[in-house]
Automatic annotation (TrEMBL):
Protein name: Gypsy retrotransposon integrase-like protein 1
PROSITE patterns attached to this UniProt entry: INTEGRASE
GO MF: nucleic acid binding
Compositional bias per record (Polar residues), positions renumbered to this chain: 393-404
Region feature Disordered, mapped onto this chain: 350-463
GO biological process per UniProt: DNA integration
InterPro entries per record: Integrase_cat-core, Integrase_H2C2, Retrovirus_Pol_polyprotein, RNaseH-like_sf, RNaseH_sf
Organism whose genome encodes this protein: Petromyzon marinus
Length: 463
């Protein structure tokens, strides 16, 4: 029962075998809206116990919604920092779009690099890496790139094999693995925006100056500038050349002291990573995957000719076949298998509602026979009730005997079921139960003492 504009309205009690079918039908009529709107629409005319839980469980298995909507709760996975202990141990490369300079970072010293390239072909990128870093600093031990098309070709892999460099890649669609070069992109674009003209056509002329300024500034994670970590001394900026003329480098005084900046930088970097991991652990909220689980895979790449606003990014379901790594899960989709980050997966819930079969013949209805007979009665003047009071059904003999044994002056505690009435249009089908109420125009009945009595309406309950 609910109130609508001062009028008392009544809901239809739904049979348990029709609940799932009604939820799916209403969800499709509402064009796959969420749980709250579907539940609110159903409550306008329908009712059954546990309604909100049933709507949530049924809509959780909707395939169309699972392909389009993100998970209700975004998972936060723990950090797994990349640890380095010496210079030239790890170098990362990436292309800064849409300007297309090749950007690189040396992980231990945070030494930034940038080379202008005409295009993003594998030959151009490999040549820029060889002439810009390998011939100047020597080949690194590991080279980290994303899974872009230019970095995934065999040319760069063969060159790394000749140099003795191990080439590693990030997990697909997870740039957080290469977070240092991604953070450098933001810093470089912010510094370039302060130097370019209004036409923004001279951005390439300011790259050497921007890199020089970045190399001489102390880094927050190491506590030293990239130039100091790379060469063991500070570079004198032109504006302070006269002030630092008497400074002597560590390498010129004692070669054994060159290891002190490296040790301090290593300690500061480890402390910085530990603090970030500790803060991230406070927000960790992700499920644990096991082999045999089914999941939806997030694929953000929009096909050509498809609008990104109407694209459904979740594919699947996929099968989890390996989950022994902390930040990597191996999945299988058809005959293909590859590793992905757990943040790209969300649990797969099979649809819980199937087409319902008709009720078997000869089944007895759960509505009592007395209510079935009373459903044919028509009350005049719509839903109003005569002043004489509503017609009640006769209680059972057992209840009357019990009341008589406790005393005639004691009111009976037995609850009689409400009278089934119909609307002005005629008798309603079986199952529409209304509780009689007093008409707004009729006076309130009074007791023998002259005081007005309050009529109470009770909700019909069926077992």
């Amino acid at each position: 029962m609910r109130w609508d504009g001062g009028l008392r309205c009544y809901s239809i009690v739904v049979h348990k075998e029709l609940m799932g079918k009604l939820i799916v039908a209403m969800h499709e009529c509402l064009m796959h809206l969420g749980v709250c709107k579907t539940l609110a629409t159903l409550r306008l005319d329908l009712f059954w116990p546990g309604m909100s839980g049933d709507v949530y469980n049924v809509l959780k298995g909707c395939t169309q919604c699972a392909r389009q909507k993100p998970p209700l709760k975004m998972c936060c996975w723990p950090l797994q920092s990349i640890r380095v202990s010496r210079i030239k141990e790890l170098v990362t490369l990436d292309v800064l779009g849409p300007f297309r300079p090749l950007v690189g970072v040396e992980y231990f010293s945070r030494w930034p690099m940038a080379w202008l390239i005409p295009n993003q072909s594998a030959a151009v990128i490999t040549e820029a890496f060889l002439h810009g870093y390998v011939l100047d600093k020597r080949a690194p031990e590991r080279l980290l790139t994303d899974q872009g098309k230019t970095f995934s070709l065999k040319l760069l892999k063969e060159v790394c094999d000749l140099l003795g460099t191990k080439k590693v890649r990030t997990s697909p669609y997870h740039p957080q693995t290469d977070e240092m070069v991604e953070r450098l992109h933001r810093t470089l674009t912010s510094m370039l925006s302060q130097q370019v003209s209004k036409s923004q056509g001279d951005w390439d002329l300011h790259i050497p100056g921007v890199l020089a300024a970045y190399r001489t500034a102390p880094h927050a994670s190491t506590g030293f500038s990239p130039f100091f970590c790379m060469y063991g001394r500070e570079q004198d900026p032109p504006i302070e050349s006269n002030l630092r003329r008497g400074r002597v480098s560590l390498r010129s005084t004692c070669p054994s002291t060159c290891a002190l900046p490296c040790q301090a930088s290593r300690h500061n970097s480890a402390s910085w990573q530990w603090a970030n991991e500790r803060l991230r652990r406070l927000r960790v909220s992700g499920r644990t995957w096991a082999p045999g689980d089914k999941a939806w895979l997030h694929c953000p790449q929009v096909p050509v000719g498809t609008s990104p606003k109407l694209y459904k990014p979740w594919r699947g379901p996929v099968d989890v076949i390996q989950a022994d790594r902390p930040q990597c899960v191996k999945i299988q989709f058809g005959r293909w298998s590859w590793f992905v980050h757990p943040s790209r997966l969300k649990p797969f819930v099979a649809p819980r509602v199937s087409p319902l079969s008709p009720l078997p013949k000869g089944r007895v209805s759960s509505v009592p026979e007395e209510l079935r007979k009373a459903s044919a009665e028509v009350v005049p003047q719509g839903n109003s009730v005569p002043p004489t009071g509503p017609k009640r059904l006769t209680s059972s003999p057992d209840e009357s005997t019990t009341d008589a044994q406790h005393g005639a002056d004691r009111p009976s505690k037995s609850r009689s079921p409400p009278t089934v009435v119909s609307s002005r249009a005629g008798p309603r089908p079986l199952g529409h139960v209304q509780i009689p109420t007093r008409s707004p125009r009729e006076p309130r009945p009074t007791s023998p003492g002259g005081l007005a009595t309050r009529t109470r309406s009770r909700t019909a309950r069926f077992k």
